[in-house]
Design a protein that fits this description.
The chain is α+β, with helices and mostly antiparallel strands. It has one domain. A hairpin with a 3-residue loop joins strand 2 and strand 3. It is globular.
């Protein structure tokens, strides 16, 4: 289980700044949301809430691409245990 974060923003610039500041949370949520969506046969992985009425989600056809980006992020931050989790999930999805 993961905790969906809430991103408060009033403009595209604020959203971009929030995404940059929350990069670790976003990549963790990408990993765990896609895993949960895959295991429950959902079409979208919900990453975060935006303000009070929006969702940041990843549709199924973009899961692999986003996981590859998340893998790159975890490599850059030297979080090798997370790298292993991402690789395992990619293997499950790509079967």
């Amino acid at each position: 289980m993961y905790k969906k974060i809430n991103i408060e923003c009033n403009s595209d610039d604020e959203f971009d700044q929030a995404m940059y500041g929350l990069a670790n949370d976003i990549h963790n949520n990408t990993l765990y949301a896609i895993d949960e969506a895959f295991n429950t046969n959902e079409e979208d992985a919900i990453i975060a809430y935006i303000n009070t009425d929006g969702l940041l989600s990843i549709p199924k056809d973009l899961w692999v691409e986003n996981l590859e980006n998340t893998l790159d992020y975890f490599i850059s931050t030297e979080e090798y245990e997370k790298c292993s989790e991402v690789k395992q999930l990619l293997t499950k999805i790509c079967k």
